[in-house]
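@channel sequence for tomorrow's demo:
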Amino acid sequence: MKERIAFYPFVSSNNEYIVIIRNMLRERYELVDYEDLKNGILDIKYISAIYLNWIENVFDTSDKIILEEAKKNNIRIIWVFHNKIPHDSTDVEKKEELMLYLMGISDTILIHSRSSLTYLEKSLPGLETQKKVFYVPHMNYCGKYYRYGGNVREKNGIGEEKFVFGFIGALKAYKNIELLMEAFQEVSIPNSVLFIVGYAEDALYYKTLEDCAKKYTNVVIKNEYIFNAEMGSYLDAIDVMVLPYVGDSSLNSGAMMMAFSYQTPVIIPKISMAQDFPETLFYPYDLERDAKESVKQNLLAAFYKGKAENRKLGESLEKLMQSFYSGKNVEKTLLEILEKQVKRPEPNYKTDEHLIEAYVAAKYKALILDHTLYTACIWLELGDKNTARFFLDHEIHHVAVYGYGKLGRRLIKVLQETGITVDYIVDRNKNVTKNLPVYGIDDCLPATQAIIVTVGDFENVKWELTKKSSIDVIDLKEIMEIIQRNRKYERDRI
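C-alpha cells (generated this afternoon):
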C-alpha cells in the first residue's frame, strides 16, 4: 500500500512546477488535498506526511492547528523553502517570524538552490541543517511548453531584425519592472525593443506600468496570460530575458529556469539560484550594487555580444538543464530523500479504507463536474471556422484525439470537415468506436503531430502520455482560449 501525502497546493493548473512535482510524487505516493485536512473532509490519521509549497503566502490559524496536530501524531512535515519571505509582504517582521516558525516545526526542509542553505544557517543558527535540510535540484522545463503562439514578433509589431530584451511572467511590483523600463530607456540601445508580457492581477498596478511604458520609445507591454501551449513561441521571440528582482524576498526563479530550458540567457541579480550557475553563461549582477546601473551595464553587454553569441550561450544553458536538472535526476533525488522521511502506515491503516476510496471518488467527480461546465461553455465554439484555422495556421495537418465523449466526437467532426486528418483516438475504453483506430493510454502510440485532450484532468492525462511518447499533448481548453484571444486581436485591428 502506498503512503499517503497531503499536498499543497493540490490543484494549480497554471503552475508547471506544481504539476511536475505532484506527478513525480504520484509514482510512489498517494496524494490527497491538504486543504481537505483544514476543512474537515479528511482526517489527519489517514496520512503519513504533509508536503507544503508556499504555505507562508496563505498561512492562518487553521494551518497552525493542522501542523501542530501532525507533530503530535508523528506525521512528517515537509516544507519547500522557496523564498526568504513571501513577495509583496507588508508586515515584514511578522512574515519573518512565520518563516522561523515553519523552519522550526518542519521535519524536512527542501531547498532548490545550494546558497539557500547558507541563508537558513544565518537565519536560524541552531537549526540542525545536516539532518533537516536537503537540496533537490529545480527541474528544467525542457519540452514542457509548446510553440502554438504563432509569430509573436509579427503580432506585436516587432521586426525580426530587432534585438529583443524580454520580461515574461506575472506583472507584480517586486519584479522591478519600472526600473527595467527606466534602465532600458537610459541606455538607448539602437535597433532594440523591450517586450514585457504577462498577466497583472492588479489593474491599477498595470495602469501604472502602461503609463510608464507610454513615456518611453521601443517598449511594448501586454497584459495577457500566456498559455503553456504557446509559451515556447514567446521565448523564441526574445534574445535575452531580463529579470531584475528585488533581492529582499527572492531566492529562486522559475522564470530563469524556463528561459535556460529554451536557450535564452538571462540578466538577473545574484539570487541564491543564480549562484548555482556558471557566470560566463548568462548576465548576473551583485545585489549590493545599484540595481539600475547594473541592469544598464548588462543590457549593453548582452546587446554587444550579439544575437549569435547569445544563442550559443543559450545552447550551453539548455545542455546543462537537460543533464543535471533533468526530470529523471530531480525525481530520483526527491524520492530518495522522501523514502527516509515519510513514515510507513500503521498496522490499522486499512481500517477505514472505504472512506478514503469514497473521498478520492468524490474529488474525481468534482473534477468531472468542472469539466462538464467547461464543455458547455465552449461547445458552440467548436463549430467555428477559427477552431480549424488554429491547426492550419500552425501547420498541423495530422492529430490524435484523447477522449471519445461528446466533445471528442464534435472536435473530430469539425477537424475532418476542414481537411485535418484525425489519425486515431486515445481512450481508456478501446471499444468506443470502429470508425477510427483506438489506442489505450498505456499503448505505444503511432506518430502524429499532436494529441488533443478533450476530457478533464488534463495534467494527469498529459503526464501519462508524455511518459511514453514525445508527441505534443495539448489541452483543448487552452486552444479555445487562445482562439478567443486572437479574435480580440483581430477586432482591435478593425
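heads up for whoever presents: The first strand starts at residue 4 and ends at 8.
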